[in-house]
Amino acid sequence: MGTPFITFLGPSNLDTYDPFKRSSEQADTIPKTFLDAMEVREQVFVDEQSVPLENEFDPDDHRSCHWVIYASINTITDPEVKDAAGNIITRKKSTTRSTPIGTIRLVPFPHPPHPEPGSKYTADALTTNPNSTPDINPTSTSLSPSPSTNPPPSTHDRPTTFHDGKEPYIKLGRLALLREFRGSGIAKMLVSAAVTWMGQNATYFNPSVLEMGVDRIVAAAQGQVAPVWKGLVCVHAQEQVVKVWRKWGFELDEGMGMWDEEGINHVGMFMRMDLEKSMS
Questions:
Q1: For the whole model, what pTM was predicted?
Q2: Assign residue 206 a region: left if phi > 0, alpha if psi is -120 to 50, beta otherwise?
Q3: Phi then psi dihedrals of residue 166, to 5 deg
Q4: Is the dihedral angle over the CA atoms 168, 123, 260, 139 positive or is it negative?
Q5: How many C-beta neighbours within 10 Å does residue 239 have?
Q6: Beta carbons within 10 angstroms of residue 168's beta carbon
Q7: Is the CB of residue 10 less than 8 Å from the CB of residue 201?
Q8: How far does Cα 21 stand from its chain's mean position?
């Protein structure tokens, strides 16, 4: 395996992506980096963890940043052939491909409310339809991905241990690494790449004058503050990898509780970045 390298993809037009098809079957209008990210996510979440294929792609993918890490992998296409005397008749042939082996995504604010402790979700709890009100109860919640590519509306959330319910935060998620490359520090490389980028682009998702619109500009002039990211980062971590996220600087948010997402227990974790230090 050659030296791994990472590729970045910012928010993209994914309107032609068909969630019921594999990444290898998608239209050629979809950015290759995103298809590579989905190739990894399908192998990890769909094939290994039995998440339904149609739930793996969601409306947050359009507005997210994605990182994909690649490794140059040599694969033998035709084996060596020898005669009875051991003489080589045909030499082996091989090809080397830059293979996607891991991915992570960054979802900007705003976000729907934090998942309710003890709830069960059949799709990502952070991709609710902003135009509908899902029926949430402590035992069973079905939130199907919305076809809308618009972000959910900004709303106040319930306070938790590290989130006051109001401050804008960025969410890291969909961290996936092929089985044979786990335990080698590659996942840390992906998280570090995303965290470094956030520190260097702290204002990237803050609304511009054009995005705010006249009404919100007037509101800001009247003392209503526009959302600004101040370094708060959230992850919805699978319970089994909490210790790993702790090593990377995230703390368990006891106030968020635990919920079931696609049959897997999840918890909330937060990290506060020092933006002044990151940008200096």
A1: 0.79
A2: beta
A3: -125, -40
A4: positive
A5: 10
A6: 18
A7: no
A8: 19
